[in-house]
Amino acid sequence: MKYSYIKPRKKSAITVELKFVFIFFSVSIFMLFSVYSFLLFKDYYFYKETATIETKQKELESSISKMKEQISFIQKEVLVAEDIHTKNSVLRDSISNLFDLIPQRITLSEAKLMKNGLILYGITPTKDVYNFMLQAPLRSIFTRTYSSFYPDENGWLRFVSTNYVDNKKDLFVEGEIDED
Amino acid sequence: MINKIFELLYNKVLVGIVVGSSSITVHIEILSKNETQSSFTKEFETSTFNDEVYEYIYSYISQTPYYYVSILDYHTSQGALPTCNSDKFPMYTDLLSLKHKCYKDRWSYYTTKQNVKDIEKSYEKIGVDFIFSPFVVLSKFFKDKLSEHNSMFVLLQDDFVSLSIFSDSQLLYALHTEIKQSKQEEDEALVMEDDEDVLDMQDDEIELDSIDLDDVDIDDAIGSLDDFGDIEDLDSLDDIEDFSDSKDLEEELEDEYEEANEDDENEDDEKLDSKDYDTFLVIQNAIENYYKDDLYDSEFIEKIYIADTMNISDDLKRYVEDELFLSIYIRKTDLVAEVCDLTKMELGL
User: Fold this and answer.
1) A71-96, pLDDT tens digit by residue?
2) Which entry of A74, B61, B159, B204 is 20 to 30 Å from B220 by CA?
3) Domain ranges in chain A?
4) How far is the alpha carbon of B278 from chain A, nearest alpha carbon, in Å?
C-alpha cells in the first residue's frame, strides 16, 4: 500500500551527462562498426567479383582454345575443301577430256577412274574402230594400255580397256561413271 | 533492466526529515542490498531548510543516485477522517483543496494541496520523494493496538500533537494540532518581561545615581550622608525576608502553575510542566470535542496510547490518569526512524 501523498521521483544512475557520453560513444561505435561492416562487405564483394572474373577468364580462355581448335580445324577443312575443289576441277576436266576422246561410233557402258588408271567398258562395232579411234589417244595419255574384246548378241563387240599411268600421279578419287 | 543492475551496485540512502517549530531532525539510513548498513540522526536548531541541513544531507545523497527523501507533514492544516467515501467528506471538511488518501479502505488522511506544494518548494534543492501523514506513522506504530475497543492514540512531538481514536481498527476521530503556549505561560512571559523591565529600570537608576568621587566635596558628602539616616529603618522592614528567600524564575513559574492548577483543577498538588499541561489541555479538549460533537460516533474511551518522541514526564501521565480517569500507556519512539521505516515499506524493501 502506498501511504505517501506524492510519488517518488524516478531514480536513475544514468545522469544527463552520462546519457550524452553514452550516446556519443554509441554513435561512434555504431559508425565504426558501420564502416567496418561496409569494408567487410566491400572486401567480400571484391573477392566474389574477382572469383567471378577469374571463372569468366578461365571460361573465356577455354572457349578461346576451343575456338582456336575450331579455327585450325576449319582452316584444315578449307585446305581440304580447296584440295577437293581442285581435284574435282581436275577430275571434271579429265572426265570432260575423256568424253571428248570417245568417238561417235563407240558407246561407253561403264568407266572406272582409278588413282593411276582408267578402265572403260563399252561397245564398238568393230575392233578397228576401237583401235584407231579410241586406243590410239588412250595410248598417248597412259603408259600402259590393255584391251580385251568379246562379242555381243547383235554382232558388235564389247570391250574392256584397262589403262595405267606409271608416273605415280595422285588420283585418289575413284568413281564410276555410268553412261547410257 | 540496466537500472536494476545499477540498483544492485549502488547503496540506497533513505533520508527522513521531521520538522519542528524550532528544529529539524534528519535521519539518514544507508542500505546495502536492502540491509541497513548504518544510520545517523542529527538535529538542527533551525525551523527552515538552510545550507547547514542541505550540506549534511547532500554529503550522504551525493554518494548514490538512489536516495529517497521522506518528510513528515508538519502543517497544522491536515487531519484524518473516519471514512473513505469521498461523498461524506464535505460533512467534515472542504474537499476541493485537499489531497487525501485512503488507509486500508477504512479511513482516510488528508492534507492541503498547498501544504504539499510548500514542502516540495522548501525542499526542492534535494527534492522530496515521500510526504507522510503523522496519522499513518501513528497507525503503523500502534498497529498491534488499533484493533482494541475505543482507544486513543497520541503522537507527541515537540510542537505538535496528532491524536486519533480508534475502535476495532476503525478511526472514529482525529486531530492534528500545534501545542501553543498556554495563556498562563503567556501571562508568565509577560510577568518575566515586566520583571526584566524593573531590573532595567533599577540599572538605569544605579547609573543615574553613580557619583564621580573627584567631583565630591567632603563637606557636602558628609552632609549628604545624613540622608542615609533611614538606613536602619530598612532593617526593620518585614519585607526584607522575602528578598532573602529569593527564588529563581523557574521556581516562580512552577509555583504559579501550581497556583493555577489549584484554582482550575480543584487544588491538585502535583507539579506539571507548562508544556505537559498544554499537552494535557489538547488531549482534554480533543476528548471533550469527540464526546460533544454529533459528527462522531462517540463511545467511552478506555485507554490512551502515547507515542512519545520527546521523553514526556511521568507527571503528565499521572496527571492525565488522575484527571481523565484513563489508563495511559507510553511507548517511546524515534519518529524520524519511523518515517524511514515507512519509506522502506513504500519502496518494498
Assistant:
1) 999 999 999 999 899 988 888 888 88
2) B204
3) 15-101, 105-178
4) 30
Summarised one tens digit per residue, pLDDT across range A49-69 is 999 999 999 999 999 999 999
CA angle B101, B102, B106 (to 5 degrees): 160
Q: How far is CA B212 from CA B187, B207, B222, B308, in A?
A: 41, 11, 15, 60
The answer to whether B154 and B141 are in contact (CB under 8 A) is no
Please state the ipTM of this predicted complex.
Answer: 0.71
Residue with grid cell 492514540, as numbered in its chain: B153
CB contact under 8 A, B65 and A6: no
The alpha carbons of chain B give a radius of gyration, in whole angstroms, of: 28
Count how many pairs of residues, chain A against chain B, have C-beta atoms within 8 Å: 60
Q: Which residues of chain B have pLDDT under 70?
A: 95, 181-272
pTM: 0.57
Q: Which DSSP string do the residues of B191-238 spell out, in sequence order?
A: HHHHHHHHHHHHHHHHHHH---GGG--HHHHHHHHGGGGGHHHHHT-T
Q: B286 near B243, Cβ under 8 Å?
A: no
What is the predicted pLDDT for the residue at B117? 93
Q: Are residues A4 and B3, on separate chains, in Cβ contact within 8 Å?
A: no
Query: Taking a C-beta distance cutoff of 8 angstroms, is the pair B104, B98 a contact?
Result: no
CA gap B316, B277 in Å, rounded: 7
Evaluate whether B88 touches B72 at the Cβ level (below 8 Å): no
